[in-house]
Amino acid sequence: MVKPIGVKVLNQYIKRELSVDPILRNLYVLGEVTNLRDNRYIYFDLKEDDELINCVSFTKNEFNIQNGDKILVSGSLTTYANASRYQIHVKNIEKIGEGDSFVQLNKLKEKLFALGYFDQIRKKQIPDFPINIGLITSDKSAAIRDFLLILENNYPIANISLYSTRVQGNLAANDIIKAIRFLDSKNLDLIVLTRGGGSNEDLSIFNDEMIAHELFKAQTPIISAIGHEIDFTISDLVCDLRVSTPTKAAEFIVEKFVNSKSTIENLNLFNKQIILEKVNRVLNIVEYYHLSNEKHSPINILQNRILLLDNINSNNNSSIKNFLFKQERRLNELNSDIERSFAKLLDLNLMKVKDLDDNFVDIENLKIGNKYYLFNDNVRYKIEILERDDDR
Questions:
Q1: Are 143 and 215 part of one and the same domain?
Q2: 318 alpha-carbon distance from chain centroid
Q3: How many CB atoms lie within 10 A of CB 183?
Q4: Average pLDDT over residues 151-169
Q5: Residue 380 forms beta bridges with which residues?
Q6: Are residues 249 and 367 in the same domain?
Q7: Helix (H, G, I), strand (E, B), or coil: what is residue 12?
Q8: Over the stretch 308-319, which tens digit does the pLDDT of each residue have?
Q9: Closest by alpha carbon to 137, among 184, 183, 176?
Q10: Other C-beta atoms lying within 10 Å of the C-beta of residue 305
Q11: Phi and psi, residue 49, nearest 5°
Q12: Domain range for residue 362?
């Protein structure tokens, strides 16, 4: 039996083998820069077609490389044991020109620009308060949870129609095109195209020319929220509005609603204060004239006021009596109706049922479509069962 080894031993063995291999110790690799991260050190990937290899240079970006550059790197292949990942430890970089993918992407941008796909004048206005919203993304994405949570908490009037699609890979373009066509046919107020970020290669599907054509043809306003803070995809440029992340898209949708709600609440509070101030002023004026009249008016004015109050009191008493009389009469009428309805109900409960052959039938056994005789001592009806409502 072969003796097993530990993970750490295996990683150390691989690292040692790489370090003594003469070819891997002195590499010259040509490729296109993608996923450049320029922090304390330079991290990037070298790309050829659909293949990638990680690279790291423990220097500042003194070579001034950018995504899309075609470069020649020299260095050695090393491993990062904590992640079981190999990478090129870059010692020198030579710029060759622009990468093939970068050149092709720019050509497509120029083509679509010439067709007017990026023109601001053709972009549709995003509605202030969209109600029916279509969402195109993967139902397994974290993007959908963030998006829906913000709308649920801040914008309860929205109706969300989710069209789940693949958002990366060779089959994703056809999925996204179908989703745009379907939701655009549903007369929605807004469509949001989104995913939760990723590498340049993950997002490359949103540079697809056919997706751009479909976005351009859509009649419904569309927001692009691909999840990338810096780089713009072609879909971002064609859509009516581009935001960086799904969260930003949700915040944009709810912003005017939240602000309007706050404004209305402030106006209501302000109006209440204004009304209260006016009421207080009127009360002060009334009190002033009341005191003035009490001090200066003749006796007959007081007597007229007393007489007026007596008349008002008399009218009120008469109105109350009339109201109570009408209510009492209405109550008696309702009691009579109830008694008559109860008598009819008793009558109905005493009725019996026979089939057309004069055999007694239980109500539970009545069948839809059959005819029966319904009778008691006073009346006899011929009936047909149209439907049953057994839940009542």
A1: yes
A2: 60
A3: 25
A4: 89
A5: 375
A6: no
A7: helix
A8: 777 776 776 677
A9: 176
A10: 12
A11: 55, -120
A12: 350-384
Q: Is residue 318 part of a domain?
A: no
Rounded Cα distance, 326 and 274, in Å: 42
* Beta carbons of 388 and 366 less than 8 angstroms apart: yes
Exposed / middle / buried, residue 93 (Cβ in 10 Å: 0-12, 13-18, 19+): buried
For tokens 């005789």, the residue is: 373
Q: Which residue is it, tokens 């949103």?
A: 206
Residue-wise pLDDT tens digits, 63-91:
788 888 888 888 888 888 777 788 888 88
Residue 340 lies inside a defined structural domain of this protein: no
Q: What distance in Å separates the CA atoms of residue 241 and residue 224, rounded to the nearest whole number?
A: 6
How far is Cα 7 from Cα 383, in angstroms, rounded to an integer? Answer: 85
Contact 165, 194 (CB under 8 A): no
**Kind and range of the H or E element at 207?**
none
Distance CA 210, CA 233 (A): 13
**DSSP state at residue 170:** T
User: Looking at this protein, which amino acid is placed at residue 48?
Assistant: E
Do 366 and 353 touch, CB atoms closer than 8 A? yes
Contact by Cβ (8 Å): 41, 57: yes
At 251, list the tokens: 């915040």
Average pLDDT score, the chain: 82
| Lowest mean pLDDT across 91-95, 103-107, 283-287, 325-329 | 283-287
Q: Report the CATH number at residue 140.
A: 3.40.50.2300
